[in-house]
Structure formats: structure tokens, C-alpha cells
Amino acid sequence: MAKRSQAHADNAPGPFFVDRTCIDCGTCYQFAPATFSDAGDHARVHSQPADSAGRLKAAMALVACPVGSIGTDGKADAAEAARAFPHLLADDTYFCGYTSDKSFGAWSYLIRRPEGNILMDCPRAAEPLMKRLEALGGVAAMVLSHRDDVADHAAYHDRFGCERIMHRSEGIGGLERLVEGDQPVPLAEDLLLIPTPGHTAGSMCLLHQDKLFTGDHLWWNPQKGRWSASRAYNWHSWEQQLESLERLLAFDFAWVLPGHGFIHKVESPATMREGLKQAIALLRSS
């Protein structure tokens, strides 16, 4: 629980604050940028919410924080915020909130489908979230993009009996389905696994309709105004990651929904393809 006595001095005066336990995972300022911002090595409150909608969004960021670094002097919005996840992003896609310190605050997503709901990567094993998932139809399968973002996968398997799907190269045992090789693997008519080795040996993306869920493979960088990937946080092969980015040019999608980094949507797959080509060229030259 965040402590006012440990609050960063650069928080804007008011009820919400970020304290010194912040790990700068980015969750709060990606989800509620009207209230939170990046202060270099930590998040801060740059502007206090001015209305009930802003307070709820800030309280949801508090709930989503993986290490409990956000605090507030007013508790009225906390219960509503706890019930507000999963949070609808678009169509049938939800942000689960309740990020985990085991995954350094990586985002996980719910894809709601008549044929069975999918969790993309794993959130914290929080009872309020699990109850909401049950109300939304449960979880039929969990796709794990790579070993960094598995969090409390065993707890979700125990609760929902969901099949856990991961690449064999990640070296995590006890899962129900292990994917091999570099070729795309159809899970259903609307679900395609795309192996994208590089960040780790078995990193994978999931394509659902016009949405690509990318784990730590690819994300939007609003400061640079382009798609980005990290050479500094690469645990396997940077060259292989660049090659995997190039393979994505063969697929049609307009959204990128990462585990770390900003979500972004463009107007069409053609726009996505052009932006991705430009980003790859810059990443190769850097």
C-alpha cells in the first residue's frame, strides 16, 4: 500500500500520489495519462483528476498498479475501480488491469468470443478480476507470449481449467500445449499464433481479426511517433527480433496491443505496414 510519507515530491498537490516504491512499469501513465506521467525513473501525478470520470480512471490505475505504489486520500472510488476491470478497449477486447510485479507490470488482455474467451498473457491472481471473468464467460485458453509475462498462470488454470499455450523454446513445463517452430499456427478461424523469436527464443504474437497482441516484441512509442522495439531489453537475439518484425509485414492488422509500451491503432493494415517498414529501417540503422 502506498504511503503518503514516501510520496515523490514531484506529485501535483491533491489526493492522488505515487510513492517511492514505483518501478516505472508505465501502467498508470499509459492507462490514465490525464493524471499520471513518466518522470524519468518513476511515475508521478502531473494533474489531479477534476471530475468523477477522471477520479475513476485514476483509481483504476491504482488498482492496476503491480506494486501498490499509487495512493489516494479519498477511498470512495476504490470499490468501483476494482469492479471496473476487465476494461473494454474496443469490440470484444478488454484490458485486464491487475498487472503483476512478476511480469514487471505487463498488460494482459481478454478476448471475448462465443467459441470461448482467450486470455492473452496473465494478470495478477486477484479475486475481483476472477469473478468478473467468470461473469463474462470464463477463460477457455490462455496464450502466453513469452516467459516474462506468465505471472499467476497456474492460479488461472486451476480456477478456469483453461488450456495454456506457449512456445516450447521458452522452457516452461507443465503447460497443456506447446508450439514448435517458426511457422504460424491457427488456433481457430479468428485466432492465429505467430512465432516471433528474438526478444526471447520463443516469443509469440497473437492475431485476432485486426488486432495483433505482441507481448514485448513491438509497441508504439508516442515520443518518437513510431513503432518501436528494444535492443537493450533483448534476452535472445536482436537480429532475430528484427527478422521477426519483418515477417509481420505479411499480416493484416491495424492495432498493436503490447505487454509493455503503448497501445496504438492506425487507419488500415496498409498504413500499419508502411509505418512498420519505416520503423524496421530505423531500428536496423541504430
Rg is 19 Å
Low-confidence stretches: none
> What would you call the shape?
globular
Provide the β-strand percentage band: 15-25%
Task: Give the helix proportion (percent range).
Answer: 10-25%
User: What gap, in angstroms, lies between the N and C termini?
Assistant: 41 Å
- In the CATH scheme, the class of the largest domain would be Alpha Beta
User: What's the name of the CATH homologous superfamily of the largest domain?
Assistant: Ribonuclease Z/Hydroxyacylglutathione hydrolase-like
**Which fold name fills CATH's third level, the topology of the largest domain?**
Metallo-beta-lactamase, Chain A
What pattern of helices and strands is seen along the backbone?
EHEEHEHEEEEHEHEEEEEEEEHEEH
Mean pLDDT: 96
Major sheet size, sense and barrel closure: 7 strands, mixed
Number of domains: 2
In terms of structural class, how would the helical and strand content be classed?
alpha+beta
Q: Overview of this structure, please?
A:
It is built from seven helices and 19 strands. Helices cover 24% and strands 23% of the residues. The chain has two domains: 4-81, Alpha-Beta Plaits; 85-285, Metallo-beta-lactamase, Chain A (4-Layer Sandwich), CATH 3.60.15. It has helices spanning 27-31, 52-64, 78-83, 127-135, 153-160, 238-247, 269-285; strands at 16-18, 36-38, 43-45, 70-72, 87-90, 93-95, 109-111, 118-120, 141-143, 163-167, 177-179, 185-188, 191-195, 204-208, 211-215, 219-221, 226-228, 255-258, 264-265. It has 286 residues and is α+β, with helices and mostly antiparallel strands.
